[in-house]
């Protein structure tokens, strides 16, 4: 009484020879330097330029603002901290942690811009 299992049947579409619409990845648009690829690249460059200008502005305002503060308030020039004049202390030591912080934030934001750009390319 051993019955053999039913025979498997393969079901296929009658349109197996029909061509499918090829989806062109956005990265290929960039490589081919098409108008769409140019739009993608210009958006990335614009966001990176905006970020760089923001970081540069922060550095110029902070570092350039230190001498301006001492020029506007000359009494601060006489203040000493640990026998070091305050202007020297700020320009010699306080500026570097600020520059490091701006650099660190800039790199994180630039990488985030690139990740977002990659996500947009993968979705397109």
UniProtKB/TrEMBL annotation:
The superkingdom listed in its UniProt entry is Bacteria
Record-annotated membrane-spanning stretches: 51-73, 85-107
Presence of the UniProt keyword Membrane in the record? yes
- Could you tell me the keywords of this UniProt record? Membrane, Transmembrane, Transmembrane helix
Q: List every stretch annotated Disordered.
A: 1-20
State what protein this is by name.
DUF485 domain-containing protein
Q: Which organism is it from?
A: Blastococcus saxobsidens
């Amino acid at each position: 009484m051993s019955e053999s299992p039913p025979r498997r049947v393969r079901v296929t579409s009658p349109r197996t020879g029909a061509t499918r619409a090829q989806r062109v990845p956005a990265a290929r648009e960039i490589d081919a330097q098409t108008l769409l690829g140019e739009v993608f690249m210009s958006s990335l460059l614009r966001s990176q330029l905006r970020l760089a200008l923001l970081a540069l502005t922060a550095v110029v305002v902070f570092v350039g603002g230190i001498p301006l503060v001492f020029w506007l308030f000359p009494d601060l020039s006489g203040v000493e901290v640990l026998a070091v004049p305050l202007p020297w202390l700020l320009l010699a030591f306080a500026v570097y942690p600020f520059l490091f912080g701006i650099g660190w934030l800039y790199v994180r934001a630039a990488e985030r811009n690139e990740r977002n750009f990659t996500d947009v390319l993968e979705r397109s």
